[in-house]
Each structure stands twice: as C-alpha cells, then as structure tokens.
C-alpha cells in the first residue's frame, strides 16, 4: 500500500526546524518529495504553485494556527488527504478539526507505528474505488479478494472468506446473523452450526482475532 506514496508529494507545514528535519528525513523514505514550509503564507503559495498530493500540518506555528490553513485549503479541495500534528490534546483544536475530514490527528512526539498507520490511510485515499477502507483499519480489495491489515500486510482470502467480508462490509454498523451467512457464504446450502464455528476460527487465525466480534446468540460484526 505504501508504494503508492512513492509518486506523491507532501506539503509539510512545521516551524520547529529540528523536528522538521528529522521528520522530513523519515517521510522521504515513503514519498516522492517533501515540500517544507514554516509559515502559512508560504504554505498557501506552495499549494497554489506546486503539485501537492497530501498535507501534514502542525497546529502551532509561532503566532499562527495551522488549522486556519487546513480550513482554507479544505474549501478548495475536499478530497486532499490531510494530517494534523499537535503537541497536546487541546479540546478547542479537536472540535475545530472534526469537520475537516482529516486522515489523522497525531500527537508529538509521533510514534513510528502511528505514522505508518497514518501513511497507509493516506495511501488508501489514492486507491481505486474497489478498495474499501474498513472502520477497524483494514482495507478490503474486492476485485482481488485481498485484505490488508493495519500494518500493511496483505492477506489472501478464499471465495467463502471473501463473501463473508463482503457481507460485513455491506453492514458495517450492524450484527450479521448466521441466517445471512448461510445465504451469502454458503449460497443456502445446508451447513451445521459447528461448521460455521470452525469457519470463523480459521478465518480469525488468518486475519487476526480482533477483525470481527462475536455477539452471543446473535451473530458477528466488524471489530473496531
């Protein structure tokens, strides 16, 4: 998934030079180019004059607020992947950030795993529509019957496993009862309760135990 970013340019807005240089060195491993700006004026100019595919912006920039830039940029581009950096969980900033359709709100110091997870989510924004980003952080490739876990590892699915995931994706916020599984996964063929349990056990071993949740006496639903 991260390979997609090798052709993408990141606008990185940060006024702390030491942090910026370290972060740029890390980002450069995954993207084509990092365009670094330390002020909002320079950031607006870069957005107008350069090819920018995604934005990573600190909130506090001397006497400026990075959210002002994000809000302005969002008005002209509703789909640009955007990430906010912050030194603390300021509730006012969090509330302002909610309607901005951000990929992530990262706290400094940024942990490596959190950065990779965020870059994977950014990369998913450039994927064709047959790639579905699930609420538990997995990505489902409907065409090739593949799952990608939050760490970026690809998992091949059997025909029945793919049908089960498609069923969960179609009902992301509700419980999927066994009756629906009989129809979608087994095409109304008779299958015992124990066979369903065994199927779920094998599926969990392949994709991770937290991918789905068991709801006793009811069925299954997406984890996350």
Please give a structural write-up.
There is one protein chain. With 224 residues, the protein is of the alpha/beta class. It has 2 domains: 2-124, 3-Layer(aba) Sandwich (Rossmann fold), CATH 3.40.50; 131-222, Arc Repressor Mutant, subunit A (Orthogonal Bundle). The chain is 38% helix and 21% strand. The protein has 8 helices and 13 strands. Strand 10 (146-148) and strand 11 form a beta hairpin. It is elongated, with a radius of gyration of 21 Å.
Task: Summarize it.
With 224 residues, the chain is α/β, with parallel strands linked by helices. Helices cover 38% and strands 21% of the residues.
Write the topology of this structure.
Blueprint: E1 9-13, H1 17-27, E2 33-37, H2 40-49, E3 54-58, E4 60-61, E5 64-65, H3 66-76, E6 82-86, H4 91-97, E7 104-107, H5 112-124, E8 131-133, E9 139-141, E10 146-148, E11 154-156, H6 159-170, H7 178-184, H8 193-207, E12 212-215, E13 219-222
Helix pairs in contact: 2-3
Notable characteristics:
single chain; 224 residues; alpha/beta; Rossmann fold; Arc Repressor Mutant, subunit A; 2 domains; elongated
